[in-house]
């Protein structure tokens, strides 16, 4: 990886490691927005409108997180990769596997499971970034707080 520059207070090796971690998170954030939109289009049955309308603001929230992550990569001198093939290339998590029109319950259960991994991966990134770049770690911490809150919404909807 060739950095455009190194921010003050970080060395090149730490910057490169932080960028790699952030790129992985960016790829999952982008995928999560697609997964949520897929669920938004395909939920059916009881509580359809509530779930359908609940998902769109989360799509926007996750896209805002992706934008913030991409901008942090650029701030660190890297080049964020937002192409569709980057999502697959950087995937270290289990793909979302619900297809077609399904019940709100089935989609919410699958999204909760997806968020379990998403949040766990972000928390792992936080631990790694704590050693490399506290600013990047703080950004990820804010993302986790928002993801956990939405996961609580989904769990509460099924309760």
TrEMBL record:
Chain ranges of the Ferritin/DPS domain: 19-158
Database matches in Pfam families: Ferritin
GO MF term set: ferric iron binding; oxidoreductase activity, acting on metal ions
InterPro entries per record: DPS_DNA-bd, DPS_DNA-bd_CS, Ferritin-like, Ferritin-like_SF, Ferritin_DPS_dom
Signal peptide positions (record): none
PROSITE patterns to which the protein is assigned, alphabetical: DPS_1 (PS00818)
Family the UniProt entry places it in: Belongs to the Dps family.
Protein name (Swiss-Prot/TrEMBL): DNA starvation/stationary phase protection protein
Organism this protein belongs to: Bifidobacterium samirii
